Amino acid sequence: MGARTRLVRWANRFALANTVLLVIIGLRYLLHYSPLSPWPGWIYAVLAFLGHLSLLAYLPLLLLLPVMLLLPWPRLVLSVAIFLASVLVGFLVLDSMVFAENRYHLGVLTLSMLAPQTWAFLAMYLVLGLAVESMVALWIWKGTASVPRRRLGWYAPLGLAGCLLASNAIHVWAEAHYYAPVTAFARYLPLYFPFRDPGLLVRLGLVDRSQARELGVTAALGWPTDRALNYPLASLRCAARPPLLNVLFVVIDAMRADALTTAVAPKLAEFAEDAILFDAHYSGGNSSRAGMFSLFYGLPATYTDAFSSLTRPPVVMDLFQQHEYQLGVFASAPVYRAAALDRTALARVPNLRLRTISPYTGSSGWDRTATEEWLGWLERRNPSRPFFGFLYYDAAVSMKPPDNYPSVVAVPSGASTEARRFARYLTAVHYVDSLFGRVLEDLRRRQLLDRTVVIVTSDHGMEFDENGLGFTGHGTAFSELQMHTPLVVRWPGRRPERITHRTSHNDLAPTLVTELFGCANPPSDYSSGRGLFSGVPWEWLIAGSYEDYALIEPDRVTVVFPAGYEIRDRQYRLVPHPVLPRDLVLAAMHEMRRFYR
Hints:
Layout: H1 3-32, H2 40-70, H3 74-102, H4 108-112, H5 116-143, H6 155-176, H7 180-183, H8 200-203, H9 209-220, E1 246-252, H10 266-273, E2 276-278, E3 281-282, H11 288-297, H12 304-309, H13 315-322, E4 326-331, H14 362-380, E5 387-393, H15 395-398, H16 417-445, E6 452-457, E7 463-464, E8 472-473, H17 480-483, E9 487-490, E10 497-499, E11 503-504, H18 508-516, E12 541-544, E13 549-552, E14 556-561, E15 564-569, H19 582-591
Parallel strand pairs: 1-5, 1-6, 2-10, 3-11, 4-5
Antiparallel strand pairs: 2-9, 6-9, 7-8, 12-13, 13-14, 14-15
Helix pairs in contact: 1-2, 1-3, 1-5, 2-3, 2-6, 3-5, 14-16
């Protein structure tokens, strides 16, 4: 038998042995998983559990495969493999303990916050792992001296690979069908990233999105989400006083705070003079998904996947439906795209309008149609019941005003690409502002303005490399330009004013819950915010993005990546010798697990 052949056979058996070991250690994850149905959830959980842990067991040896083929030296290969397997075992033991205690997994940041005694335990696990792995590796090596008569040893990895593929296929099916018992499992395993493309089966013509969503909403009503989430922390105690005010949310995607000027947004600027203008308002994210989640839930966007997988709406939407508000939702872009509102804030809205179909072209055409359909809906609504309206405009983030729409700024012939993009962006904001003017004028004409809470804001800002650091668009940095958003609120009975202390999207939900529905619970029962009118500025804010998040303070930003972190100053320049704000990180980590079971 050749050395390479024997090493490959040994590697396969060693990986299988480690799969068994990881499965035994990882049983703690399954103990914390409470499936939301009698058996379908467990079928997927077992397949995903076996497939993912076997992938972790095989991964170090797959990385060593080139070494086995180029340098087939048993001492080298076995030594490196034993060390990597021991690190993996130690990591999984510690991660399972951390998850059991805190409901989050180990990462670079959490590792940096471990106490000295925890590091001592990790070292002990590593030593024990080295001893166990060495004995197992040598025992298996001796067993590979002779050629086996049968090739049964290769059927097991094929079966485990089948588990991995099957679990990913089931996850794709479950996402397309809004099936929480499957989608809710992802956060229970470390380093687990199942294939996610809820639109794949729709594009293949295998799923009707509208029908699947309605069936999913019906099934979701019976899902006991409190087994996974402790949200809210206490039952709401509310005493709303009739007649209830109407509520209209107007969200202009990607409108940053400094675009609120008479030149760029004249209708909104005029409206702000007779409303409450928040000068230092910040989104809870630099992307639509994170920003909209913080707007409706008042929670860190790090909870998004958990709430999305369970299709658990925020308490404020529960209250709107409990008080029989008529729901008029008109989003320009499909609600199942960037913001994923169909799985979060609007998850249990029956007959949800998933997308805008417009006879006009581009994002500006969708915006125009959404406005026209809103005006028509308002005309047909039952005037004896209050309404919740939601308008979500898309032209600004797409930087696509209507063709031949006059530019609001002059663009020199030799202007840079970013300067031209910025001009289109401001022009698109101006166009959306004109649509908002139509909405506002219609409310006045119907004499609804004095009976309607009107809230105008954005999900995040937009950047065009103004600071010369190379950041453009959104979702690329937690800078002032991407985080600072406008907020204008006209609340009947409240005088116009300018509020200069720091507020955030997290404050919106507590404001509606307490001021509109008269709930006596402290906001901490369901939110990370305090309320827009509390007068208390936030000292730090957790902001989300796509994969990373940030801890924002008035004078610095700590950006946390999956594999590291960095600290930036107020101008978003890197701090050369950063000191991790330990107390802040601990407080933020507590806030990011407070609503998990």
